[in-house]
Every structure is written in C-alpha cells, then in structure tokens.
C-alpha cells in the first residue's frame, strides 16, 4: 500500500475518497457517538495551557530563571488544533484512530464536499500531526524540528506567537462550523 499523501488528496477528490474508504474498511475511521464537545473541551484545555505559559514568559518564569518553554507551547498549540479537527470528525459521528485518517476525513468532507475548510486550514491540521505522521506526510517536520532543536529563544518566541494566532483562528472556525451543523 502506498503512503498517504494529503497534497494529492487536496487535488484529487477520487483519490481522497479511495483512502477514506480504506480507512473506514480497516476500521481506522469508524462510526461512533458524537463526542465533539469532549474534543472541544480538550482543545480549550490545550489552548488555555499554551496561552498561560506564553503569557508567563512575558514576565519570565522566576522559578526557572532564564529557562523558556516556547518549544512546548508550539506543541501544545498543535495538539489544540488536532483536537479541534477530531471534534469535527466526531460531530459527524465518526472516531479516528490515526492522524492521516483524520486528515483524509477532513479533506474529503470539509474541503471537497462542503468547502468549509481551505487549503491553509488543511495545512495547519497537517502541522499538528505527530512526529511519526509528519515524517510520512512531510509538511511540518522542518517546522517542528526547528521548534524543538533551534537554540535561539527569539526564533521560538516568534514561532510560538505565529502558531498561537493560526491555532486560535482555526479553532474559532471549527467552533463556528460545529454550531452550524
């Protein structure tokens, strides 16, 4: 079986549908009850923690002296985005066991069919994937590695602020989508 490629899914609705059907057939995506409110609660939980840490950095965290946690803030924002994506899947009474299946579901149902998400939204969800899935799908490996391994605090701080804005915009879009359904 070839590797999933979300960029192809964006361009080719039929290819996306083939993968979606495979994920359903293998029960990686399966019918479930709507637990979207629980996923949104986890989204808000992650968002609140990341925002709190980012805010604390403005006054320096005294107990950690000069230590910063921007790399972790970035990861927390990504998981907030991913849980928001899972909320969309759950609202349609599905549960996903993999990041790739979640992404395939979103692209097919909310990019191709409903046009509720745009390409930038899809890219943001891709960037929220686990390191293993990022290596498979590609797009955010560099960004995540830079956040984890770059030793320049200013870079991490700027990146954390950028991710914060993107995450909040995406999460607000998801919440409004869920209210419409």
Structural description of this entry:
The chain is mainly α and 181 residues long. It has a single domain, classed as Nucleotidyltransferases  domain 2 (Four Helix Bundle (Hemerythrin (Met), subunit A), Up-down Bundle). The protein is 72% helix and 3% strand. The chain is elongated, with a radius of gyration of 17 Å. The model is unreliable at 129-142 (pLDDT under 50).
Beta-strand share of residues:
under 5%
Main sheet properties: 2 strands, antiparallel
Q: Which spans of ≥5 residues are poorly predicted at pLDDT below 50?
A: 129-142
Identify the CATH class. Answer: Mainly Alpha
Q: Oligomeric form of this entry?
A: single chain
Work out the helix count. Answer: 9
Distance between the termini: 35 Å
> How does the helix and strand content classify structurally?
mainly alpha
The overall number of domains is 1
Radius of gyration based on Cα positions: 17 Å
Spatially, the strands of the biggest sheet line up as 1-2
Fraction of residues in H or I helices: over 70%
SSE order, one letter for each helix or strand: HHEHHEHHHHH
Average pLDDT over all residues: 80
Known CATH architecture: Up-down Bundle
DSSP, total strands: 2
**CATH superfamily membership, which one?**
Nucleotidyltransferases  domain 2
Basic shape: elongated
Quote the CATH topology.
Four Helix Bundle (Hemerythrin (Met), subunit A)
């Amino acid at each position: 079986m070839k590797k999933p490629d979300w960029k192809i899914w964006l361009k080719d609705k039929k290819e996306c549908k083939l993968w979606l059907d495979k994920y359903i057939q293998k029960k990686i995506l399966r019918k479930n009850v709507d637990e979207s409110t629980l996923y949104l609660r986890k989204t808000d939980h992650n968002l609140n923690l990341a925002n709190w840490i980012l805010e604390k950095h403005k006054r320096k965290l005294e107990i950690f002296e000069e230590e910063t946690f921007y790399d972790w803030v970035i990861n927390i924002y990504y998981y907030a985005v991913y849980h928001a994506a899972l909320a969309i899947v759950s609202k349609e009474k599905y549960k996903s066991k993999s990041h790739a299946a979640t992404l395939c579901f979103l692209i097919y149902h909310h990019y191709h069919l409903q046009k509720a998400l745009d390409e930038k939204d899809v890219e943001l969800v891709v960037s929220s994937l686990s390191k293993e899935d990022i290596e498979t799908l590609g797009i955010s490996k560099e960004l995540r590695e830079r956040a984890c391994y770059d030793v320049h605090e200013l870079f991490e701080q700027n990146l954390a602020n950028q991710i914060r804005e993107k995450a909040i915009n995406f999460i607000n879009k998801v919440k409004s989508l869920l209210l419409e359904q």
